[in-house]
């Protein structure tokens, strides 16, 4: 394993000299961490004189619309030619907040065809060997915090503007569930303290992200918990399954079901929760667990062709919603039995 300072040197090697054309790409259904880390890193690179394009496979949820710089993101699904061109022409490519390249959807192909150095900045477990250089830190809470560490080591924290501090904080706040999940280290809190010194206003960011929902979204949440949440395994597992029709009834907008999967975990004794949301192509699977016992990264890999982290993971299912739910129940029974979790 190459140590951090050697990697920083290698990174400088790719960026020093002439100004470069750089593409920053992140995962499908981009979340606060994907967007926050991309925008902050883009701004740092621009200040070094590089020309940077940020790309996402599909649109980001509207509760992130206010983030500084987000309007410049190229949404590949809406502008495929522009996206392909930016990737083809890039002299350096940064891949943010994902490890498996297939999470780039339609951008995977041009990315794999490019011979530009491909640099990973991420915090997911088990990154594949697909990168020229990797800043992969599964022990850090978010890619935004990895990005913060990179900024600290390259440009220095003085380079962080209030807007960058906000963008980085969005990723840290959303990936830690507003400082409720794991990886809450003293070092992270020192980083947040530095962001405050650089002009971050925490209530502004919190309100912009968490108190900006539509009435339909809040009603869909009520419906999901009141009518759709099912509890299995004697109170130790739960799931919510939402059909396309149900979501349409609540005027579903992208990102509206974000966070729903966490609510069942607020029940005492609950170990694992799942949200199944139907799209026209597949069932999106979102998984959460609490504590060390249930590892949803393993569960997602084994049963839903996905992955993620120990306590937050996801995948896809290509059978019907009801069949997906049956498969989930069987999978939970099998996995819990293996772990020795008694009913
Ligand atoms: P969410 O439930 O918020 O969509 O995803 C939680 C985490 O699971 C994400 O941070 C991501 O790491 C992972 N994840 C979600 N969907 C997939 C997927 O289809 N494949 C893989 N490999 N990881 C996923
Ligand atoms: Mn993340």
Taken together, the total number of domains comes to 2
**Overall strand count:** 12
Strands across the major sheet, in which order?
Answer: 3-2-1-4-5-6
Rg? 20 Å
Write the topology of this structure.
Layout: H1 4-15, E1 21-26, H2 32-47, E2 51-56, E3 74-75, H3 80-89, E4 92-96, H4 108-113, E5 118-122, E6 133-136, H5 143-154, H6 162-175, H7 186-197, H8 202-210, H9 215-228, E7 229-232, E8 237-242, H10 244-249, E9 272-278, E10 283-289, H11 296-304, E11 307-308, E12 312-317, H12 321-339
Parallel strand pairs: 1-2, 1-4, 2-3, 4-5, 5-6, 8-9
Antiparallel strand pairs: 7-8, 9-10, 10-12, 11-12
The protein binds guanosine-5'-monophosphate and manganese (II) ion.
Manganese (II) ion binds at residues 33, 97, 123, 142-143, 175.
